[in-house]
Each structure stands twice: as structure tokens, then as C-alpha cells.
Amino acid sequence: MNNEININDERAIRLDRLNELKKIGINPYPAHCEKKDSVTEALAKKIGELVVVSGRIMMKREMGKLTFCHLQDASGKIQIAYRQDENNQEKYKTFIKKIDIGDIIEVQGERFQTHKGEESVLIKDWRLLSKAILPLPDKYHGIQDEELRYRKRYLDLLLDPELRDMFYKKSKFWDVVRNFMKEKGFFEVETPYLETTTGGAEARPFATHHNDFDLDVFLRISVGELWQKRLMAAGFEKTFEIGKVFRNEGSSPDHLQEFTNMEFYWAYADYNDGMKIVEELYKKIALEVFGTTKFTTKNFDYDLAGEWPKISYSEEILKQTGIDILKATEKELIAKLKELNVKYTGTNRERLTDSLWKFCRRNIAGPVFLVDHPKLVSPLAKSREDNPDLTQRFQVIIAGSEVGNGYSELNDPIDQRARFELQQKMIEKGDEEAMMPDMEFVEMLEHGMPPTCGFGFGERLFSFMVNKPVRECQLFPLLKPEITVSTKEKKNKK
Q: Are residues 278 and 401 in the same domain?
């Protein structure tokens, strides 16, 4: 906050002004507002026209019998000027003495232009809408501490128009996705957030308890993958969902525990069809939201235009590390990981293979489609007919990371049951990220599900396009609560 003023002293001064305003009959928090024009609309009005604007005072300075302020609303900022004359001396005095930077006011006035050419509004009348008891941070420096910025996100957003603009872009990002899917004939659905088994991905879930059913349940880790596939069996042929996903794992610039994803499922289509529509979607997002196909993310420059090449999972690892993951033993995989100084979790073949791939992935600028994933790391993908050890899976790789995952969905119930049983064995050996088996899903497959392509991606793609950590791209990222003195005392007593 502003270091030049003790915040507690400033608060006390403003509380005194609040009480003084009440004494002279001014309600500091009225419900009704007469706002008729946004700041942008007011700026578009002709000189001499009357406007009624409302917003927050961001700057205030006095020049003799004339006071200038900057008034800000969601659309922008405008200068307002207040001139003292015989008819408004008391109200002008109240404005000068009792109204502070940060207060929210309504202004009725006339459009004019200063002698310096600045478009402004000359106040004819004003009304207080909300008295700010605490001051705003220094407008030139904002909030420097990162945790404080997230904790007081409302102030961070208020003071940073570029940050606000990023969230308008994020809203448009999802609008473009939704419109694109609907234009392609996909039906938007809603699937459960609470599940008894977390299908559709390999991740550690958040667990909770359903009191009415006396049942342990989990927050979903995918956007209804196994539910949307049930819809394919139910006769729907194109579905999609945009919604929250929860994964109880570590944080990083590219990962959060709560984030938004989109998944679609397309009956009578395979992963080749999926790659075509995904490439079209990403290019549309780039052009409609950002007006370009060229981006810089972290230390990578890439262009989404043109045809995206395909690279093979095992061939890329062989090329970068010299090890053939399809033939190497677990011991050889561990040795290679140690040689490359790669941290890994778990010693089963799936985790070791995945760790080796992630090491290689960070060297790829993209955009490319990663294909030919081993069946071991793709428990829900259909095997290739010419090589059953590989799957019909594809991932979008950009800036050394995966920003989209899809496959020809496995619809063979015998194969799916066997893969689930393998995942169950991994869980029993302590693998917390292995996929929970869903035998009711297998039963659905036994009734028959058509050939289907499924694909999903999340807000990580947006964060890459704006070249910001994904946490920065959330309005209110999760924070640990502040520990107050009373909280500390309670803990010490315990």
C-alpha cells in the first residue's frame, strides 16, 4: 500500500469524513444511481452535450477555484473538472474537503475540452455513491509483492488496465471455443463434478464426503470424459463441455489444482479427424482473440499458421536420449533418467517412460502433433491396428509443453477391462496418479459405443498465448489464509 501515509491514520481520517458527511445529510452508500453514460460513451459526446457518468476517483488535484479529477469506470478514464462559483460554494467545499481518491461518485456535467486539448466533463452536480475508507496503493508502483497482489486482486485489477484487458481476452477465448464447437454441430452438455471414481485422466483427486449418501466422493479430474462417452453410447454424436477440473497435485507456472478445461467427443470420427478440427480451432482462437498466429511463450517463438507436423513419441525420445523406450528395461530407464539428472516419481514402467518423455518435451517449440504413444501411458486410447503396442493418440505440443490431448477412444470392453485391471494393480502398489477403474463404464462399452474421437485442452493454452504463468491468468488463484494474531494464539494454546 502507499508507504507515504500510515494506513491506519488515513483510515481514521476517512472515517471522520464519513461521519461528517452523514451529519450534513449525505448518504455515503446509496443504492440508486443515475448513471446514463459510460466513460467511453461520454468521450464520444459532442462538446456542450450533457452526460451522467459514474466511477472511481483515481486522481485529484486542486488549482485555485478549480479542481481536476480522473474518473474511471470499466470502459476507461476521463478527466472531470469542478469550478467553484456562487451557486455551489457549499457543495464544492464538501467535494474538496470530504471526497477522497478512491471514492466512487456520480457526476452530471457538460462535455468540454481544456485549453490543452484534453477531453473532459465540467461538473454541474455530483453525488457520492461509495465512500472509500482505505486508500488505494500508489498508482505508479501498484502492489509490488506478488502474494499481496493475488490476495488483494481487486486492487491489482483496478490499477492495471492491461491486466483487466487480459481477462476480457480470456472471456473471448472461451467464447470463440464455444461458438466454434457449436458451429461444427457439437451439443454443449454438463456432467457431474462429484464422482465415485475419477475417470478420464491420471491425477491425484480431491476427496470429500457426501453426508446424505454417507459416501466418499471425488472432485472430477477431467471434463466428464467417461460421462461424455456414455452419451456417445446413448445416441448423441457430438458433445462438448467447458468446465472446472480439480487435481490435488503440485503447483508450477504451468499447473494449478483448479482450472478450466474443454473436452469434446465426436462419434464416427478418429484421431486423424480430431487433429484436423483441433488445428482449425487453435488457429481460429489465435486470429479472433489475438489477431495473430505468431506468439512468444517462455523462451520459444512459434507460429500456428501452416501445416502442423507429426512427431513420434518413441522416435523423439530415441532421437534426444538414445534410448528405445519400447525395448528398454525398467533398470535401463532408471539409469538413463539418472544420467540425464531427471527427477522422477515412481519406479513402474509407465511413470519412468512419462518422466523421460517430459524431459524431451521441453526442447520442442512446436506447434507439432505428438503421436504413437505407447499403450502403457494411454489407458483410454485405441491401439493402432498395425502395431498394438502403440495407440491412436495425439497431443498438441507448444513451447515445450502439452496444450491438448486427444485420441481415438478405446471402445473394446475386453481391452478396456484389461487396462483398468493393470491400473488397479498400479494403485495397489502405491501409484497415486494411476487411473481409477470404472467397471460401470466397461459395462456401458459392452452395450456398444461407436468409434469416437475425444479431445481436451485447458486454460494453459491461453496462458501460453499471453505468455503469463497460468496462475496470473486466474482472477482469484487459491492462497493460504493469512494467519492473524488471534489465530496464532489459538494454535499455541492447542
A: yes
